[in-house]
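Sample entry (124 residues):
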Amino acid sequence: QVQLVESGGGLVQAGGSLRLSCAASERTFSWYAMVWFRRAPGKERDFVAAMSGVNVYYSESVKGRFTISRENGKNTVYLQMNSLKPEDKAVYYCATKRNFTPMTMTQSARYNVWGQGTQVTVSS
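Predicted structure, serialized as tokens:
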């Protein structure tokens, strides 16, 4: 089973930028849809962005500020986060599963492969 490892989190001031990375352990990585979720303190895990083939999807809260991309040669997916706000503070997770479908992509319970998460803190 593929394993995922996130990195790139940290502390940034509001308006700043961070780029998160999620490295996958398998060469078949290019076949997988990759998804980013986040969990803010005291809240549920929320969908952030997904990439399936050439299709990308974003939550309304990050659309226009975040960009998901991938580099198949490095088995890595990225989340470029710009214009960060204090409400973006959360632990960010990447996830994947077989049989990705946009209709259920926001449902975290449907994903069976997760990274360990990386903390993003945005100061005001």
